[in-house]
Amino acid sequence: MSERHLSRRTILRGVGTAMALPLLDAMLPSAASAAIAQKKAPLRMGFFFVPNGIHMPDWRPSADGPLGELPATLQPLDPFKDALTVFTGLTADKARPNGDGAGDHARSASAFLTGAQPRKTSGADIHLGISVDQFAAQQLGRNTRFPSLEIGCERGAQAGNCDSGYSCAYSSNISWRSDTTPVAKEVDPRQVFDRLFGSGDTAELEENRGKRDRYNKSILDFVLEDAKQLQSKIGVKDQQKLDEYFTSVREIEQRVDLAGKLSSGATQTAGARPTGIPQEYSDHLKLMMDMLVLAWQGDLTRISTFMFANEGSNRSYKAIGVPEGHHDLSHHGGDAAKHAKLMQINHFHIEQVAYLANKMKSIKEGDKTMLDNVMIVYGSGISDGNAHNHDDLPVMMLGKAGGTIKTGRHLTYEPTRR
User: N or C: which end of the chain has fewer CB within 10 A?
Assistant: First the structure.
């Protein structure tokens, strides 16, 4: 069989379906060196946000420079230490009151990626600034099907008073397309899945959904003919990579469908399509992360934001033995027992990031992996949840951005204090 060169933009199509493909060897110039071929692997940028600050004594590495033993909260990332950068001393000045009084949670989320002071209002006259992800999307978004992807695991209102006179839009969004337009995140895995693999034609998508529901079909069934034709054009190595990709898509699709079945019933609006939100928070996080990886793998987008929860979230963590609300615990008042529970929550969050890192490291891209070709910034706009301070923030970066970032370090800066 003679292999043919494939376009990086090759898409498998069917009724209501448009499935992008991972980077295959057949998409690289046959005579290219490894260095040239590697340039074909896209670089991705992600911003992950967690609310209510972090228990800093268990977060901050003990010494500046090369990362040694990681502190307790960051321990799950030890296998990926060479791709990790931890920052100490960063400040979000515009999350401070600066004359606006209470509302640190709203300012924490809204200033996280914008560096702008939100107008204090609970009305329609919200005003902030463009976020860094959307600035990047304006420059790079034309290269992909979706300029950016905004996802999360907690629904949030876009209006109303959520924090001391600040609109809920400030607490629920870290991505802002303009001074007055937040980009709402999607929290339903089913909606994200349909968006990633849908054709964009509403009527066709509804037909696709109906057939999948009635006949227990997979979205892969709708691209079967194109897939068979593609298999005849690629080599054995690419066929294996494609099979692995299809398996991942199908496995995620099954998890979304299962979550929809478990969540259907009294909690659903009459006549509404069941959501694909898992009952367990950890399952929800992992499912959203897996779909983010698929989106990056198929080069559907290169820029994403991910909110673990809205700022000020009082989510309970019963599954890890913390039944109290996160926000309530963050007002610890120096209580050692509350500190310990906060550390459990922080550690749980990092375990999910380690899951994502492991997933990305398993995906080969030329002579590197997806983990080598990403830059993920993770952190919070509050340091100590009890003090509500916005200096000495907990921020880290995961990934090597194609080798452009020197990793495996703890970088310290002199905090800007007041």
Answer: N
CATH number (domain holding residue 376): 3.40.720
Residue 87 pairs in a beta bridge with 395, 411
DSSP H or E segment with residue 379:
strand 374-379
Cα 110 from Cα 117, distance rounded (Å): 8
Residue 416's pLDDT is 65
What is the band of 264 on the pLDDT scale with cuts at 50, 70, 90? low
Q: Is 225 within a domain?
A: no
Cα gap 9→317, rounded to integer Å: 42
Question: Residue 385, SS3?
Answer: coil
| Dihedral angle computed from the Cα positions of residues 196, 198, 199 and 205, in that order, rounded to the nearest 10 degrees | -160
> Does residue 106 fall inside a structural domain?
yes
Neighbour-count burial of 254, counting CB atoms closer than 10 A to its CB (0-12 exposed, 13-18 middle, 19+ buried): exposed
CB atoms within 10 A of CB 347: 18
Cβ burial of 15 (10 Å; 0-12, 13-18, 19+) is: middle
Pick the closest to residue 29 from 39, 18, 21 (CA basis). Answer: 39
Model's pTM, two decimal places? 0.92
* Residue written as token pair 């946000």: 49
